Amino acid sequence: MRLPHFEYVKPATLEEGLKVLHQSGNKARILAGGTDLLVNMKYRVVRPEIVMGIKSLPELCTVSSGSNGSVTIGSCVTLTDLAKNSLIAENYPALKLATTSIASKHIRNMGTIGGNVCLTTRCWYYNQSKLWRDGREVCHKAGGTVCHAIKGSTRCHAINNSDTIPVLIVLNATMVLKKKGSERLIPSKEFFRDDGIRYTVLEPDEILTALLLPESSGDSYITFIKVCSRKGLDFAWGSIAASVTGSNGKCTQASLVLSSIASAPLVLKKTSQVIIEGGLSEQSIEKAVETARSELGILTNLFTSAGYKRDLSQVLVKRALGELQGQMKKERRTKA
Q1: What is the C-alpha separation between 48 and 30, in angstroms, rounded?
Q2: Domains in the chain and their CATH numbers?
Q3: pLDDT tens-digit readout, 183-229
Q4: What is the mean pLDDT of the chain?
Q5: How far, in Å, are 165, 180, 223, 243, 294 from residue 170 at the CA level?
Q6: What's the CA gap between 262 and 20, in Å, rounded?
Q7: What is the spatial distance between Cα 228 and Cα 309, in angstroms, rounded to a whole number?
Q8: Residue closest to 295 by CA, chosen among 262, 269, 318, 264
Q9: Confidence (pTM)
Q10: pLDDT (tens digit, 9 = 90+) per residue, 254-263?
Q11: Taking each helix axis from N to C terminus, what angle separates 269-278 and 282-294, rounded to the nearest 10 degrees?
């Protein structure tokens, strides 16, 4: 398939790029690695008049540490470079694990962390060629009034398939968004909308320029699990990031985030509270698994059935909490 016609713009500075977006609005799309955008353009899923390349902007391509122990990741750092970075490997191993789980090595060499965070929501009925879509009634995401995934739905249920986002949320990362003349900081858990069409809070003239990670805590434990058809190639059927802070099986903080099951990452607040109150005992973990099912809400039948996603979500919660339990026990033995 060939790309549609478009104007390519390559700004020399970030400020120049922000000016282009300010003037172009919805007519422009940002190109970093291009592993998602270019495919969607070939499928005529999107047809921007302007494509702006930002991957060569030096201020977006670095990983640096602050005096307070925090780490700043430029949005155009490639997934390969992020996984190899010593700051990430030593202080945020779960983020490295999530990053290396994305697609193939070739995709990671091109794709960027910002691109994965802002990954377009996907739907089996929408992410197809124009010829395929023309044979069906126009869906919400394409400007129509139907949802092929959930019949009768009044909104789009395309799925958020980002692998890094669950980890970034449990790490309490902050997104740095810039547009001409202003900047705003958005907590990662507030960056997404439960809407297959308007799936982030990014405005058309804004760029995600960086991710801020707080200093890693010595008494925190974190894990990431992804389930997909083929390791290293496919989008996830479901994934989870989980973290706890505490010792001796007791937890002062807990966070569990599911992804690839809905239009936005799902923060399991009630399930986390179960772990905070009961710790990582076998009984508490079983209660947390049952609680998680009640927090899932409406699930679609995209890529797998809704029933399978419910069962998978419970399995992911149990596996993640089991891994955290093992990490905490291992640390206890080491200190003893």
Answers
A1: 10
A2: 58-118+159-213 (3.30.465.10), 220-335 (3.30.390.50)
A3: 999 999 999 999 999 999 999 999 999 999 999 877 899 999 999 98
A4: 93
A5: 9, 30, 10, 6, 20
A6: 33
A7: 12
A8: 269
A9: 0.94
A10: 999 999 999 9
A11: 160
